[in-house]
Amino acid sequence: MKVTLKAGLKGYSGKFDDMIYYYHPRLRRTLMRHKPEHVKPTPMNDTYRSVSRNLKALAISDAYKADFSTYLSKLRDEQEDVHYVSWYNLFIKMMWALQAANPEINLATLSRTQIEQDNLPCISVKAAVEAGLLQQVKGYKSLNALI
Question: Where are the domains of the chain?
Answer without folding.
Answer: 10-39, 43-142
